[in-house]
Design goal:
Blueprint: E1 3-7, H1 11-22, E2 26-31, H2 39-42, E3 46-47, H3 58-67, E4 75-77, H4 83-95, H5 98-124, E5 132-133, E6 137-141, H6 144-159, E7 164-167, H7 169-175, E8 185-189, E9 193-195, H8 197-210, E10 214-217, E11 221-227, E12 230-236, E13 239-242, E14 245-248, H9 254-259, E15 268-277, E16 287-289, E17 294-298, E18 303-311, H10 320-333, H11 341-345, E19 348-354, E20 361-364, E21 371-375, H12 385-396
Length: about 425
């Protein structure tokens, strides 16, 4: 039985382990944390065929420049001297063109649709009984500018065959009366679904353990042992882990680890914040508040409020002004919904691994014949978990992949 080591116990790493073990591989997952926190646990839980526009889109540059120095803005870049970030930012700018976005759209849509199908296949197989609802996601707006932009995206989505409806203010408030009067309408992507991430992550870990997958937590990879074009082992915390195949799925830390192998896989950690409210809120539909760049999800027993994109390095520091900005946005968009101080004090953060062009890295590198990289999913990590794991397994097995992986090549910025 071939041995595979997966570095990273987030959603991409666990789904890689899931499909690998189903193919008969002996799998060990290494993670530097205790695998109870991070972006895979605190995200909005969306499965989003609607998210086919990459983060590196032309408009984000202009908007980002306006926001970047405001520490409470939805898109914040902390001023710091960091050559890796400067290189990444230059690639991001080069990727944010109309032609490159046009090429990325069908790739992201195919990934998201295939991934949604795999989640539903997993649920129908009855190995799992997890919270999964296909109520769609509302893109709710307050300004004329946001309305115009969302309607343009909705037109593209309809042309591409997604289930979408545009809601007037009256229609929106009828299905979600908890909105405040300033919310003037929404686009409803009924093609989307949502889940409760940390509940699912625990179920998946439990299932994997029953299948014999070994989890080694608190194991930060410090050295990778290479012979020619082959990786033979990884050393972590004075322990040597040998295997036949290796998968790097360690999120925002993938770039640094890949660089020790002479690989250029540019990724920056984009920090998101999250708060959970266990009280009744009256919110029944997953919603993205377009103007505030914030996501709200009614989960299994609570409502999650999540959002913002902060580039400040790989850390879990909570900036109170950013939490406060999210709380203010909630108060402005909803009637009688307020996040209490105790709930703000319990705010958590997680790092999303952001590639410069908005596409994930999934596949083998040309430099090593037994290494697969799976990272760089930005805000779509949860949505793309199953398809990532499936494609990783097909790459490890040298099987024909479900889709063309060339746009996702880890070598594309070499």
């Amino acid at each position: 039985m071939k041995k595979v080591i997966v570095v990273g116990g987030g959603i991409s790493g666990l789904f890689s382990a899931y499909y690998l073990v189903k193919e008969g591989y002996e799998v060990t997952v290494l993670d530097q944390t205790d695998m109870t926190s991070g972006a895979s646990y605190i995200n909005a839980g969306y499965i989003t065929p609607s998210h086919f526009i990459p983060l590196a889109a032309p408009g984000i540059i202009t908007q980002g420049l306006k926001w970047m120095l405001d520490s409470s803005s939805p898109f914040y870049i902390k001023p710091r001297w960091d050559m890796e970030f400067f290189k990444w930012a230059l690639l991001f700018k080069k990727s944010a063109t109309v032609s490159k976005v046009k090429k990325a759209i069908p790739v992201l849509m195919e990934l998201n649709l295939k991934s949604r199908d795999l989640y539903e296949e997993m649920l129908s197989a009855q190995n799992f009984d997890f919270h999964y609802e296909r109520k769609g996601v509302l893109m709710a707006y307050c300004t004329d500018k946001a309305e115009e932009e969302e309607h343009e995206v909705a037109e593209q989505a309809i042309k591409k065959g997604l289930d979408v409806s545009v809601l007037s203010k009256e229609a929106l408030h009828k299905i979600q009366p908890v909105f405040s009067d300033q919310v003037k309408g929404a686009v409803h992507y009924t093609c989307d679904a949502h889940m409760t991430p940390h509940h699912f992550m625990q179920q998946l870990k439990d299932w994997l353990r029953l299948q014999g997958v070994r989890f080694r937590t608190g194991q930060k990879v410090e050295e990778i042992i290479v012979e020619g074009k082959k990786i033979v082992a990884m050393k972590a915390q004075h322990t040597v882990y040998e295997a036949d195949e290796f998968v790097l799925a360690c999120g925002s830390w993938t770039s640094k680890l890949a660089s020790t192998l002479g690989l250029n896989v540019p990724i920056q950690g984009g920090k998101g914040y999250s708060m959970d409210v266990a009280r009744p809120t009256g919110i029944t539909l997953p919603t993205i508040l377009v103007d505030a760049r914030m996501a709200i999800t009614p989960m299994d027993g609570f409502t999650r409020f999540a959002g913002t994109m902060e580039f400040s390095g790989n850390n879990d520091t909570i900036q109170k002004e950013r939490v406060e900005a999210l709380a203010k946005a909630v108060k402005a968009h909803y009637q009688n919904v307020e996040i209490l101080q105790a709930e703000k004090d319990r705010a958590t953060s997680g790092l999303r691994p952001v590639s410069p062009d908005g596409l994930p890295y999934i596949g083998k590198t040309t430099k090593y014949n037994n290494l697969v990289i799976a990272s760089g999913h930005a805000m779509m990590g949860w949505s793309l978990g199953p398809i990532t794991g499936k494609l990783v397994t097909q790459e490890v097995s040298n099987a024909k992949p479900l889709m063309d992986l060339s746009p996702l090549s880890p070598d594309r910025f070499h």
